[in-house]
Design brief:
The chain folds into 2 domains: 74 residues, Winged helix-like DNA-binding domain superfamily/Winged helix DNA-binding domain (Arc Repressor Mutant, subunit A), CATH 1.10.10; 60 residues, Ferric-uptake regulator, C-terminal dimerisarion domain (Dna Ligase, domain 1), CATH 3.30.1490. α1 packs across α2, α1 crosses α3 and α2 crosses α3. A hairpin with a 5-residue loop joins β2 and β3. The strands form 2 sheets. It has a 3-stranded antiparallel sheet. The protein is α+β, with helices and mostly antiparallel strands. It contains 5 helices and 6 strands; from the N terminus they run αβααββββαβα. The structure holds zinc ion (3 copies). One zinc ion binds next to α5. One zinc ion (ZN) binds next to α4.
Length: 134
């Protein structure tokens, strides 16, 4: 069942306005700063719901935090994510697709799926880090 409550729409809107992956907490404080009375538990629920219906991508940060993003496509894709500013680039990874299929087949696995996301520092953050190190 699809619930289109105002809370869900508010969370969806905040996600759309954000370019990179964000945590429920970051999205909650963004909504609060615009005067929304939405609760953190509701934000968590709405994000899980959006991820379930494929309206948002979700992934785990290296620190184990769940992050969400409204991606431009529902098709299978991968991400490059800046661990400092959250900048996200959607990427295709043909080499990964081939490798995943081959390695699954070799081990007799069917219906194999995979999640591959690359975390690092974006060009701007790398330049900033280099500048402040001088
Ligand atoms: Zn995505
Ligand atoms: Zn960055
Ligand atoms: Zn893939």
């Amino acid at each position: 069942m699809k619930r289109n409550t105002w809370q869900r729409e508010a969370v969806r809107g905040a996600l759309d306005a954000n370019d990179g992956f964000v945590s429920a907490q970051a999205l909650h404080s963004a909504l609060h700063s615009t005067g929304s009375p939405i609760g953190l538990a509701t934000v968590y629920r709405a994000l899980a719901d959006l991820a379930d219906t494929g309206e948002a991508d979700s992934l785990q940060s290296p620190e184990g935090e769940s992050l969400y993003r409204a991606c431009s496509t529902n098709d299978h894709h991968h991400h490059l994510i800046c661990r400092n500013c959250g900048l996200t680039v959607e990427i295709e990874a043909d080499a990964v697709e081939t490798w995943a299929k081959d390695v699954a087949a070799k081990n007799g696995f069917t219906a194999a799926a995979h999640v591959v996301d690359v975390f690092g520092l974006c060009a701007a953050c790398t330049a900033k880090a280099a500048a402040s190190a001088e």
